Amino acid sequence: MQPCELFVTSGIHFANAEQALVHIGREMLAQGVVNASYPGALLAREAQFPTGIALDQHAVAIPHCGAEHARRPCLYLIRPAQPVPFQQADEESTVAVSLIIALIVTDPQQQLVLLRTLFGQLQDADFLDALLAAPDETLGELFRRRLFSLPSSPTS
């Protein structure tokens, strides 16, 4: 997978998924990586296609929206202070999300590759446990080393 910009934050309190998504929209707009249309598109996409994913021991959310809302590719990794309720993908129930990974891509094909790679890596319970336990100052490096050191999968 191609490296991209990575933003990391930890310890923020969100009462619900909407608060988390609003935060992501504002932060990414402030960083200049998205267009003004991004915050609204992110909320609309999550309302229609929820991104909460229940894994073996934890839950994650991978919010994203169309590439036309991005200026440059990046990931925003958030480890909230407490789990945040997100609606589960393909389910009516909610999951308590311990890790939020916002995807911002400029190429729709890259989004599919990134989603597959992320989902595959997050299936590794040891890796997810390590992300949740890592000190704030090493969280980004641990994530970057694991995701961006993987061999690129060929595209057809």
From TrEMBL:
SUPFAM superfamilies, sorted: Phoshotransferase/anion transport protein (SSF55804)
GO molecular function, a single term: protein kinase activator activity
One Pfam family named in its UniProt record: PTS_EIIA_2
Domain PTS EIIA type-2, first and last residues per copy: 1-146
CDD domains: PTS_IIA_fru (cd00211)
Domain of life where this protein originates: Bacteria
UniProt-recorded name of the protein: PTS galactitol transporter subunit IIA
Organism field: Chimaeribacter californicus
